[in-house]
Design goal:
The complex is a heterodimer of chains A (171) and B (967).
Chain A (H helix, E strand, L loop, with lengths): L1 H21 L18 H7 L4 H4 L14 H8 L9 H8 L10 E2 L13 H5 L5 H4 L16 H10 L12
Chain B lengths: L6 H16 L9 E2 L15 E6 L8 E7 L2 E7 L12 H4 L1 H5 L9 E3 L5 E3 L2 H14 L5 E5 L4 H13 L4 E4 L6 H11 L3 E5 L6 E5 L10 H12 L2 E3 L2 E3 L2 E6 L4 H4 L3 E4 L5 H14 L11 H8 L4 H8 L3 H13 L3 E5 L4 H13 L7 E5 L9 H9 L5 E5 L3 H4 L6 H5 L4 E6 L11 E4 L8 E6 L2 E5 L12 H12 L10 H14 L7 H11 L1 E3 L29 E7 L12 H5 L13 E4 H7 L5 E7 L2 E10 L6 E6 L27 E12 L19 E3 H6 L27 E6 L8 H9 L7 H5 L8 E5 L10 E5 L9 H4 L5 E3 L5 E3 L9 H5 L6 E2 L26 E2 L5 H13 L12 H5 L5 E5 L6 H8 L4 E2 L3 H4 L5 E4 L1 E3 L6
Parallel strand pairs in B: 7-8, 7-17, 10-13, 10-15, 13-14, 17-18, 18-19, 23-27, 24-26, 29-40, 30-39
Antiparallel strand pairs in B: 2-3, 3-4, 5-6, 5-19, 9-16, 11-12, 20-21, 21-22, 23-28, 25-26, 25-28, 30-37, 31-32, 33-34, 35-36, 38-39
């Protein structure tokens, strides 16, 4: 009896730990994300000093910050010299016979379904994007700096005397 | 040696490993971000857009605002600018979304092959076949069958009929106002549209008119009725409208009146005419000008109240009392809703002789109805084989026409039947070509529900299935059939615009048409005041006596069919919300039943749930019996709407269809009833019809209200003070709600709104039977045992957001917690599903997810992205629409201001047609919600608070009633 119980417990433990190690916890920011287009935040936001909200334009108005439409990319790139990359996006844009290039960005930051987050009040409160997303303007490929978990949110909310009621984020 | 593992450490170990195993099981969130190629400048992802349009679920035509998130309609709400709905929307209107996203909608055009099965075809092929057939058809060989579809669509149909050279337009809607129109023409000699003003009346008489459910314009009349029924004291005088319902069954409307007077079928008119006689005998009224008083007296002399009392079952004393009240009231209104012409004529006589025309009911000249052929002539032409092509749109005549009309048989003789619709229904079974058409939320269109009101419909989203607008199908097929006579409209959109431009030309004003069009689109139509038309009762009406049914011809049993409040004429049956919201009086879900009186059931030897066979001359239907005292003993009442043999997975093979056995144009038929040996359980979420002596729905009589006396306190009040925990502090807001039980009609609009807003899953009949109904708000229904009470008690029951919430201290994981804004929160990610909270909740408003909720695609497109979809094993309940509270607070922050009263309207309060629900901040004494509590403070109470000390955030206002009397 006792051997059986131990065996079952050990098996469950091994199974659980293995699964936990092999899987990626889906709500954590991911550091291994490779994008379909080799987009560099360092060049755009760092060297060229394009403001974050020029591309992520909905951040101050919506819960989503928004990913720039292709039009926004081409808006600059079509007037730039040929050697600048982005042919894959520009070509279909100029040549209307081709279907528009659709970029499927891979998410770096995700939140689980039971967490509600509004970007707009955080921008309104004067928080820099870097406060949560790290120094993105120095990164060629975005990797998370902070583990965005509940503790991370609560630390800031507590320091700034913002509501930490459950219903602020969970409903 | 075996290691010592105690039971305790094994459990610890198992719990830890179990948690480790469970965590990775969470479904990964969406992994991709796909940006727009070219963004729509008016769309901000994450922020809803709103489009004004007009509801098409019934002829009332309420204005609707569609809430659109990321290109999908997720919620329908009333359009506050629209004068009919005035911002409210009934359960049927709310559920139109499930017609749009119905998983059984025809995905693409289909053609019926030689094997009688349907196969998908290309649109081009289908249109070519239709165009060719139309081109080959001779004059008057093409029929179009459909309901009245609004001026623009009627113009398209008229021009299409012109192009195919046919006059066979059959205007067909199973429930229409033809009888009302005809009787108004008979009584007043002109085509007039009535505008009822219940709010201007002090006494109301309904002759079988279910004006809070399906009759005329329920949302509008419910709003007026609430005004009529909310008691008020002004200058020392108590105002509280008196309402009587004379009819064969106690409908929800009858239950909201002071008294339901059970009446033999077809005898409603007799009661009204006896009232007329009493009024004249006692000189309570003077006949209107231009009518010879002698003629009226002579006419009324035939209706002796005592003889009529014997025949109708309504006592002579009651008739006299109603007559006196009706004649002496400052404003009275009689409404007739039966299938009997006499009742309508009698109601107009009562309104006219008491001088209420122009007061409680005004008239406006009617718009020209669409040119149409006689329905009988079209069906006959089909029988003769003279119709080569029949196009049927937005109608299901095979389901809703009586078998006696032999419509299906006639349809079988048409070589090409083209069905245009959403979910393939019974009529589609007879079609050779099935064309999916755009839902009204995807299409252009307009409506003219009444003079002065023109609603405009616009697409609120791109199409869900591979459908086309009906107008485009008609216009293209007309071009294919007859290039020379084809209508010049390009498509539906330009047709609507041109029709509106044409009408605009006839209107004076300085506005340009473009401005007018934009304004109309933005506000959902063009709303104008029209001057009331003068109308006087024709003297000829009194020249001929109205024949009353002879006692000798009286059938033993009559079947009285009535449109189900949610399923209406049957078109609602494909929508799971409408199936799952309990019918207000019987509380039955997902089925049809036969209402049988207790005595009749005994006589027939029928028990609850026994299937009875109801045989009429036209055929027979079989239904489970629902036994109550809410129906006249000589009547078996059956709701219309179920009994589909097709029409999608939610409608198919449920209940029976009374349309089939009714005579054409009637809602009643003499039947023979017999028990079968079978039974089927009728399912309702009801636990008890009695409050079991607990103070749940509290009432007070009009006498108590007049004296200003409060009902005595609960016999065992809680010892005061009784506080285990320190009181909760609410620093900024304390959200609360006031619900006026005198305004609440029990219509269930709040339930449908809650389903839509909060991603509440529907579970189906079997799960409701097992007590797994998920709705966060329900309508308590109790049947009082005494006459010193309203006929039926209803009360919206939702989470009371108690300050002393019994659910909170029992939760082992703090999933049920109290917020500093007075909300009783349920934190889904904490919940482990012990269900202790549900057990400890005295209001029984918590719902447990026994299963993973299912929304078959594309019903899931309706889900509100601002609300978490709860998984299996999680407890949920009303949140006071916390997502709307947070959204309003975020908006206020962005605008550097405080949240204003009225910024937050929960879905239930938004939908409520009678405006019974008000939400607001209890800390703000000037909020509309607190004003309502103060104004009606002597009616205010908190449910179960006295015995339990729960301190709910919801204050109910007691229902004031008149004791029912047998006179």
């Amino acid at each position: 009896m006792k051997y059986g119980a131990v065996a079952v417990a050990v098996l469950i433990l091994i199974g659980g730990v293995t699964t936990a190690l092999l899987s990626q916890r889906p709500w954590l920011p991911r550091s291994d994300v490779v994008q379909p287009v080799p987009f560099s935040h360092r060049i755009h936001a760092g060297i060229n000093r394009i403001p974050c909200q020029y591309c992520h334009e909905y951040a101050r108005r919506s819960e989503n910050s928004g990913v720039p439409p292709i039009q926004r990319c081409v808006g600059c790139h079509s007037s730039m010299a040929e050697q600048v990359a982005l042919q894959a996006v520009r070509k279909p844009w100029i040549d209307r016979r081709q279907a528009a290039f659709e970029i499927r960005w891979n998410r770096v930051y995700t939140l689980p379904d039971f967490v509600r987050f509004y970007h707009s009040p955080h921008i309104k409160a004067g928080l820099a994007c870097q406060r949560c997303h790290g120094p993105v303007e120095t990164m060629d490929r975005v990797t998370p700096v902070f583990e965005i978990n509940m503790g991370f949110c609560l630390n800031c909310h507590t320091q700034r005397h913002v509501s930490i009621e459950c219903s602020t984020c969970h409903y | 040696m075996a290691p010592e593992v105690s039971r305790r450490s094994f459990l610890k170990l198992a719990a830890a490993t179990g948690a480790a195993a469970a965590v990775p099981g969470c479904k990964p969130a969406a992994r991709h971000l796909i940006p727009y190629v070219i963004p729509d400048e008016n769309v901000i992802p994450g922020v809803p857009s709103f489009y004004a349009t007009a509801c098409n679920e019934c002829p009332a035509g309420c204005g609707v605002v569609a809430r659109v998130r990321e290109g999908r309609v997720i919620k329908l709400e009333g359009n506050p600018v629209d004068p009919i709905g005035a911002g409210a929307l009934c359960a049927r209107g709310q559920s139109a979304l499930q017609g749009l996203y119905n998983p059984d909608r025809l995905q693409r055009p289909h053609r019926r092959g030689a094997d009688h099965l349907i196969n998908p075809v290309q649109w081009d092929d289908a249109m070519a076949q239709l165009g060719k057939a139309l081109g080959a058809a001779g004059p008057n060989q093409v029929a179009f069958i459909g309901p009245p579809m609004g001026p623009a669509y009627e113009e398209i149909v008229a021009r299409w009929m012109g192009a195919v050279n046919s006059r066979m337009r059959m205007v067909y809607a199973p429930i229409d106002s033809a009888r009302e129109r005809n009787l108004i023409r008979y009584c007043f000699g002109q085509d007039l549209t009535p505008l009822y003003r219940i709010d201007r009346a002090r006494t109301l008489l309904s002759l079988g008119a279910d004006f809070l459910e399906t009759w005329y314009s329920p949302v509008e009349l419910a709003r007026q009725y609430a005004e009529f029924r909310i008691p008020s004291t002004k200058d020392g005088e108590v105002r509280f409208g008196t309402a009587y319902y004379v009819g064969t069954r106690m409908s929800m409307t009858a239950a909201r009146c002071d008294q339901w007077l059970a009446c033999r079928p077809q005898h409603e008119a007799a009661v009204a005419l006896a009232m007329l006689r009493v009024m004249l005998d006692h000189n309570l009224v003077r006949p209107p000008q231009g009518i010879d008083p002698g003629a009226v007296k002579k006419f009324a002399a035939a209706y002796d109240p005592h003889a009529i009392a014997d025949q109708s079952g309504v006592s002579a004393g009651m008739i006299e009392r109603m007559a006196r009240e009706f004649a002496q009231a400052q404003g009275a209104l009689a409404l007739a809703g039966t299938d009997d012409d006499a009742a309508h004529a009698a109601a107009w006589m009562l309104n006219a002789v008491t001088g209420n025309i122009g007061r409680t009911v005004t008239f406006a000249p009617s718009a020209q109805p669409p040119a149409a052929a006689e329905p009988g002539a079209v069906i006959e032409a089909m029988h003769q084989g003279n119709i080569k092509v029949a196009v049927i749109a937005h109608a299901n005549p095979v389901f809703s026409m009586p078998l006696q009309a032999r419509f299906a048989e006639a349809l079988g003789k048409v070589p090409l039947v083209v069905w245009c619709g959403g979910v393939p229904d019974e009529t589609a079974q007879y079609a050779h070509l099935l064309l999916p058409i755009n839902h009204w939320l995807e299409d252009w269109g307009d409506g003219a529900p009444r003079p002065g009101i023109s609603t405009l419909r616009q697409p609120t989203m791109s199409r869900v299935v591979y459908s086309r607008p009906l107008g485009d199908i008609l216009l293209e097929s007309a071009r294919g059939a007859a290039r020379d006579r084809a209508p010049e409209f390009e498509d539906t959109q330009s047709a609507v615009r041109q029709v509106w431009a044409h009408r605009f030309k006839n209107q004076p004003g300085s506005e340009s048409f473009d401005d007018f069009w934009d304004r109309s689109l933005r506000q959902g139509g063009d709303f104008r005041q029209v001057n009331a038309a003068a109308a006087a009762l024709r003297p000829e009406v009194f020249a001929k006596p109205i024949e009353l049914p002879e006692a000798a011809d009286r059938p033993d049993l009559t079947l009285a069919a009535y449109p189900h409040i949610y399923l209406y004429d049957g078109s609602g049956a494909d929508k799971p919300w409408l199936q799952e919201i309990p019918e207000p009086v019987s509380q039955i879900v997902w089925d049809a039943w036969a209402d049988i009186h207790t005595g009749t059931a005994q006589r027939l030897g029928i028990k609850e749930n026994d299937i009875v066979r109801l045989a009429a001359p036209g055929g027979a239907i079989e239904l489970p019996a629902h036994i109550s005292d809410f129906v006249h003993p000589e009547v078996i009442a059956v709701p219309i709407g179920q009994g589909h043999t097709s029409y999608g997975r939610y409608a198919k093979l449920r209940g029976a269809n009374p349309w089939l056995i009714l005579p054409p144009g009637r809602m009643t038929v003499a039947i023979k009833a017999a028990a079968t040996r079978r039974s089927r359980e009728l399912v309702s979420p009801l636990y008890s019809s009695s409050m079991l002596a607990r103070p749940i729905v509290e009432t007070m009589s009009i006498a108590e209200f007049t004296q200003g006396s409060k009902p005595p306190p609960w016999e065992e009040p809680y010892p005061e003070p009784y506080e285990t925990y320190p009181p909760v502090e609410y620093p900024v807001h304390e959200w609360g709600m006031t619900i006026d039980l005198n305004a609440c009609t029990g219509c269930g609009a709040c339930i449908a709104a809650c389903y839509a807003e909060n991603n509440v899953p529907f579970v189906g009949k079997e799960e409701v039977r097992r007590g797994h109904l998920m709705s966060w708000i329900r309508l308590e229904r109790y049947i009082p045992a005494t006459a010193d009470a309203p006929p039926l008690l209803t009360m919206p029951m939702l989470c009371q957001h108690c300050s002393h919430a019994p659910c909170e201290p029992v939760c082992p994981v703090f999933a049920a917690v109290h917020s500093n804004e007075g909300l009783n929160l349920q934190v889904y990610n904490r919940c482990i599903g012990t269900r202790y909270c549900e057990n400890n909740c005295p209001y029984k408003v918590r719902r447990f997810n026994w299963f993973k909720p299912q929304w078959p695609e594309p019903l899931n497109l309706q889900l509100n992205p601002d609300v978490t979809v709860r998984g299996a094993g999680v407890m949920e309940k009303c949140t006071f629409c916390v997502q709307r509270i947070v959204a309003a607070e975020v908006q206020a922050k962005l605008e550097d201001r405080k949240v204003r009263d009225g910024d937050i309207v929960p879905a239930c309060a938004q939908a409520c047609p009678s405006r019974a629900i008000t939400f607001g901040d209890m800390k703000d004494k000037h909020s509309a919600m607190m004003q309502r509590r103060t104004e009606h403070h002597h009616r205010a109470y908190k449910a179960l608070d006295e015995p339990l000390n729960t301190l709910p955030a919801i204050t109910y206002l007691r229902q004031v009633y008149r004791p029912r009397e047998e006179v």
